[in-house]
Amino acid sequence: MALSEALQTAESGNVATIQPLSREVRRQVEMRALEDWQPEKILNWAVENFHPRLALSASFGAPEGMLLLHMMHEIEPASRVFVLDTGRMHAATYDLVDRVRDRYGKAVEIVFPQADEVEEMVRSNGANLFYESLDHRKRCCYVRKLAPMRRFVEEHLDAYVSGLRRDQNANRADTPKVTIDSANGDVVKLNPLADWSRDEVWEYVEQHDVPVNRLHQAGYPSVGCAPCTRAVPHGGEERDGRWWWESDGTKECGLHVTEEQSHGSGI
To answer: 3.90.1140.10, 3.20.20.300, 1.10.10.200, 3.40.50.620: which CATH number matches 3-228?
Structure first.
């Protein structure tokens, strides 16, 4: 389902306009009152407080997102999920989107970058600019992921769910389970799996037969854009296959990095 169609469907279902956080919800977030809660309890709280202006942000390239999609569907079958279609994704990722539609009967909301911004970037720097420099790679991530994410979240959501885990890399080590996302319009961001290990994630996936990206079986622990992701040798770190030509071990596209961490660039 195209984004415009999904939003039309949401509007027909009486999706409310953006609402300010209640005093109690803000208190719970600021006091980190949910830090000891299990993922299902956090998601129940989120559905009660934010549905239908709550959605899962899933890349369809990591088992965490698929696990959360399954949990949210069990709690609320009408729960929403969106994916950022950068235009450079693996075929296996698009296949998984279709599998999710078939299995859960869920309208996956597809969020695209602005065509004119992509055209200008490619015209100026080439289609594979990300290999040339870190600045060019960050620009590509910004145009294809960060800017579309911010537009979508700020306009259509009061809260969103992410699959971040603290042990994925150094940038994520202090990830709270619930926070205010100042980079995306001060909406609530939920990270229910923050204290889970990768083994715990896969145990849940296998127990519940959750559909995942088939590239995981080909040595891709994390699947991003096709030109920027490769398989990782057995025993390698989860994100070693992302932007492998860069030496920084905390490599990020910018979706989950604060402006302070990225020296004010927001990416």
So the answer is: 3.40.50.620
